[in-house]
């Protein structure tokens, strides 16, 4: 087998510092598969050892670019690829606290199986979202609880993992549910306005570990197509009374959203424009994505290739 040159980017601080613990095993597995590895730690605050600088400097030297970390680590890698217009296939070894997008892609949890798929598998081309000038893998969100993903203390996340997000959500609940935004939303030639407390434009079968999206059966709930060139859009209107709160909570728990639901809207679209009376803060793949009064979101069909195990090899196992 021809030797593959692999650029390995490791964020050791994601999750509960799993990347640091697994580093030797990861290097060993790639070496066993006849790969020539170049390894860099990702230090976001460093001018040299950040994803953007490394990808820019070594853009044409590798057959594969692999990141080890959480969904945020993958987010910065994909943004770098899109900005540099690089078509190199990527690999993803998830070690974060939630790993939403890894679950959507079907990346094996077993390290050896995942690395085997990265080296000997097949590329899966998936859709990428774009908010103004920034890119996102699986979700762009605003409003209630969206600050939790990037506002939770890193040390707390390292110690408690996913539980840290839950604790932060509980702590900030009064603030999250009391703030609403006056928005005009345009999609597919039609416009509507209102007060909203939350919005998510996503391309994932799991967000925050939650998979209860619209659909009467589990199979339908998980039927988000990562290659169809469309976003799933979820919007929650600001509640005016206790009954409205009850409607939002029951809808969220059931995952079943009727078309005429007064509080929760769900639809698919290829692009979306939003106008806000005040700056609207966003989180992209769990990272801060800026604040804007005017926003345009579009989907870039099958823009990135990620290496996954071949389907026939999964079936044999």
From TrEMBL:
InterPro entries: ATP-NAD_kinase_N, Diacylglycerol/lipid_kinase, Diacylglycerol_kinase_cat_dom, Lipid_Phosphate_FormReg, NAD/diacylglycerol_kinase_sf. GO terms for molecular function: ATP binding; ATP-dependent diacylglycerol kinase activity; metal ion binding. Residues 1-135 form the DAGKc domain. Its cofactor is Mg(2+). One of its GO terms (biological process) is phospholipid biosynthetic process. Keywords: Kinase, Lipid biosynthesis, Lipid metabolism, Magnesium, Metal-binding, Phospholipid biosynthesis, Phospholipid metabolism, Transferase. This is YegS BmrU family lipid kinase. It comes from Oribacterium parvum ACB1.
């Amino acid at each position: 087998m021809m030797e593959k040159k692999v650029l390995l980017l490791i964020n050791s601080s994601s999750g509960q510092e799993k990347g640091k613990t697994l580093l030797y095993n990861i290097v060993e597995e790639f070496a066993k598969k006849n790969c020539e590895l170049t390894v860099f730690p990702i230090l976001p605050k460093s001018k040299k050892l950040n994803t953007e600088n490394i990808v820019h400097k070594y853009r044409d030297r590798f057959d594969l670019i692999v990141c080890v970390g959480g969904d945020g680590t993958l987010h910065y890698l994909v943004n770098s690829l899109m900005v540099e217009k690089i078509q190199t296939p990527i690999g993803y070894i998830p070690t974060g606290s939630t790993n939403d997008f890894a679950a959507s892609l079907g990346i094996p949890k077993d390290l050896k199986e995942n690395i085997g798929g990265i080296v000997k598998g097949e590329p899966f081309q998936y859709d990428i979202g774009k908010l103004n000038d920034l890119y996102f893998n699986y979700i762009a969100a605003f409003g209630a609880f969206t600050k939790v993903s990037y506002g939770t203390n890193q040390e707390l996340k390292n110690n408690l993992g996913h539980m840290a997000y839950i604790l932060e959500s509980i702590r900030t609940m009064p603030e999250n549910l009391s703030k609403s935004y006056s928005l005009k939303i345009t999609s597919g030639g039609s416009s509507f306005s209102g007060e909203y407390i939350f919005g998510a434009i996503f391309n994932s079968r799991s967000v925050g570990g939650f998979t209860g999206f619209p659909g009467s059966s589990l199979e339908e709930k998980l039927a988000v197509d990562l290659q169809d060139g469309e976003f799933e859009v979820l919007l929650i209107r600001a509640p005016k009374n206790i009954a409205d709160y009850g409607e939002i909570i029951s809808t969220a728990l059931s995952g079943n959203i009727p078309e005429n639901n007064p509080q929760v809207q769900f639809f698919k679209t290829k692009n979306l424009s939003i106008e806000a009376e005040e700056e609207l803060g966003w989180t992209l793949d769990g990272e801060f994505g800026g604040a804007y009064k005017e926003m345009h979101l579009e989907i870039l069909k099958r823009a990135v290739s990620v290496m996954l195990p071949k389907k026939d090899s999964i079936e044999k196992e």
